[in-house]
Specification:
Layout: E1 2-10, E2 15-21, E3 28-29, E4 33-34, H1 41-51, H2 58-63, H3 78-86, H4 88-106, H5 114-126, E5 133-138, H6 145-148, H7 155-170
Antiparallel strand pairs: 1-2, 1-5, 2-3, 2-4
């Protein structure tokens, strides 16, 4: 199962918005944000979480029914807020990891997700106004708090896990940061 997320440009390309369609649920409007000089925040978050297989971050929780105050098109629900509370530590750790990778990419410092961010940024720049950039988020069941008590991962544990997966995925080859031509 996958959740479809359509990113699109608004206000002559100065803003970015998105609409998510979880499996077997209604679509809902996401956050509108400045596009900035490079990749919009939520799109960058999507790319890094997906590339590093981080399913306890914003997009993984959203796909599992979490509700956030920052997402105006999805009504806050008790179960949705509970999902956020259950995974709060991991959510914060993932946010920090994402910010580290996006910041490194912006500074043109090598990161395992540099090529993925480069490719998505190129797609974003080429996207015409009024045309959605449709992406798929794989939905994976997340355990409830009763299953995760005593097993929540710290930021260091998540970082280590990501580094190991990145090395395996890259077979020892280093990916570069953002190319100087962009």
């Amino acid at each position: 199962m996958e959740m479809r997320v359509d990113f699109y440009k608004l206000d002559g390309g100065r803003l970015c918005g998105w609409v998510a369609t979880p499996p077997k649920r209604r679509s809902f409007q996401g956050t509108t944000m400045a596009s900035g000089r490079d990749i919009p925040h939520d799109l960058g978050q999507f790319v890094v979480e997906l590339a590093l297989d981080l399913h306890e971050g914003f997009w993984g929780l959203l796909a599992n029914g979490a509700t956030f105050k920052s997402v105006p098109g999805r009504r806050l629900t008790k179960p949705g807020r509970q999902r956020v509370r259950e995974h709060c530590e991991a959510l914060n750790a993932v946010e920090g990891i994402v910010n580290e990778h996006v910041t490194a990419w912006r500074r043109r410092v090598a990161t395992p997700v540099g090529q993925a961010l480069d490719a998505m940024y190129a797609r974003w720049r080429a996207l015409p106004i009024g045309v959605p950039l449709s992406l798929e988020w794989p939905v994976r069941h997340l355990p409830s708090s009763t299953a995760t008590i005593g097993r929540s991962r710290s930021r260091a544990q998540l970082s280590h896990s990501i580094a190991v997966r990145s090395r395996k995925r890259n077979d020892g080859s280093e990916r570069s940061g953002r190319s100087s031509s962009s």
